[in-house]
Amino acid sequence: MSEAEKTSVRHRRYGMVIDLDKCTGCGSCMVACMAENNVTARPDETDKKKSITWMRVYSFDNGKGFPEARTCFLPRPCMHCAGKGGHGHSPCVSVCPAVATDYSAETGIVSQIPTRCFGCRYCMAACPYHARYFNWFDPVYPKGMEKMLNPDVSLRMRGVVEKCSFCFHRYQKAMDKAFYEKRKELEEGEYQTACTQSCPSGAIAFGDLDDPKHAVYRLRQPVKGLYVFRLLERLGTEPKVYYTTRHEWIRKAADRTVNDEKTAG
Amino acid sequence: MEAVLDNREKRGLAGTILAWDEALQPKGVTRAPLWKFTLWMGFWGVVALWGVYAAALCWIFGLNQTGMNDYYGFALWIWADLAVIALGGGAFFTGFLKYVLGHEKPLKYIVNYAVLIGFICYSSALLILAIDIGQPLRGWFIFWHANVHSMLTEVAFCLSCYFIVLTIEYFPNILENRVLSKVPFFRNLVKNFHGSMAVFAATGVFLSFFHQGSLGGLAGVLYGRPFAAREGVFIWPWTFFLFTWSAAAYGPCFTMLLTRIIEAVTKKKLVPDETMRFLAKVSGWMMGTYIIAKIIDTVYWAQVTAPGAGFSLSDFYASGPFYGYWFLALEIVIGGIIPAAVLLIPKARENRAIFTLALVLAVMGVCVNRWAMVVQTNAIPVLSFDKWAMYVPTWQEIATTILPVAYGVLLVSLSHRYLPLFPLEVGEKDGH
Ligand code: SF4
Ligand code: SF4
What is the value of ipTM here, to two decimals? Predict the structure, then answer.
């Protein structure tokens, strides 16, 4: 082992595998995400197009009537796209003029730096998943709530864009602990996102997509009867969030399909 | 001027103002009475103040004052921004024809004016951007923390540099004011400026080529947005070239249209027919070739690029009455093919009414194109289970969008009244 290898941290490719057949649409992940990341809520949330939900649960149906009617709940965090070529040319990162968002080669996480962002919103126009949110309003924290805020996550001000960070502060904490214990590697489960932890039905798995020791590595392999896909794959955004379901109508909704073609699997 | 000042006491305040006004006007021209001019300026001044008030609201309370949302991060302002920059393209293209290609004779009668229009358009664009960003005090980050891979960075640099060039080009016009030009220093300065103007004009053409292109690239590189995305040459998507081309084609139409409007208002012939004919012919060729390229681009995109991303054409034009196919026809046929044909057919462009109508259609055509590329792009749901989102601008957005119009009218009115803007009118044989 070279000296560089001994001291360097292994490059990871953190990602998620979400089992849509397990998701009940309870919204626990949304609440956990908001609490963990100091996401603000306005007193009046009726204008949904201006509200912030880093983790959003979409619901859609198969368009059929009773008794064939089916509904799907699809949790959508930031996809942490690796972008065309897989080297961080993510749709949002490549367009930001001020490098306020960046792709980490060490973790595969797309970061967002609120104090660097000047609110041009070009990244929002670039993201096809609507994973980015603009702070249209000054943040509101009701009196007494400051005691509940997470000190590890910076508060965002009006006029900047924010989005899911895969709870990156948890990664930093886990790495600090590992270094303190003279380790360079994290074990599976040491770094978990808040939504993964809070999901009551275990629909969300999180880990290194390239590490065979991590569950997500196995879960994203196609298994007979359980099909894996990513949202809008053919755009070439290379998302690091995978979904699994046995239902073809859901898989079809994952990507735009022309001429009613069959989906993979 | 000294006489004016000496007689101040005899004349009283009103008389002094009248004398000032008269002394500042170019020699030998007639201008509207001061009261009429003041009324006109007062009206547009109030409109401008309304816009300034709306802008202040956005700066103080934030962009929640607008109708924009997370689907429409780019909306009315960015459209106006792209549209004025395209329309201001008349400045760089006239400069290119005059200084680089050497078409001195016909263009000397319009180049001062084209530069003024360009100056107004670009200062308006910068003003709009200053209102549009969520953190205006951090606007300089785009220069300081520049991401060289972002088209927006290129736009910001080229736009600012080109604005400086336009200021330098407009500056001699101000110094040529009858009173100011009496100062020897200014007179010499203007002479020197004129001597080196070709260099500035050529620099402006170069900068303009890149920022007009990068504005097109802005949309073209959005590979997550199949409506806008285009593959291209190296780092440049096709839209890069289409935008530069269209600005060169449509920009002069805007300059000509405004000339027609000012001629109608002042009831004077300000630009010779020969100049208009020349510009119309060049614009016609540029527009004709551009629209062919645009049609090829659209067909290729609809047949190859969009289906490759899983979309069919109807996915982009299926939202009720607003984003229907008529939008495509408005841009390509009514705002492109028809005006190009009029400008190219000698008989049609000789007819004053038809020619003016063609100019109106052309201006509308390029505005529709910019709307489609920045606003419609955001409206189209990319996720199959997402919905088309609608957007209605608030009065604050409308007022701030009208602000540049008012500012433009004020500046053109002042320049026309006090500066030798149109060489033909002030009886110059050589122009500048
Ligand atoms: S999902 Fe959107 S915000 Fe997240 S990395 Fe991809 S393009 Fe960027
Ligand atoms: S809004 Fe912020 S993060 Fe997004 S592109 Fe602009 S500066 Fe970058």
Answer: 0.90
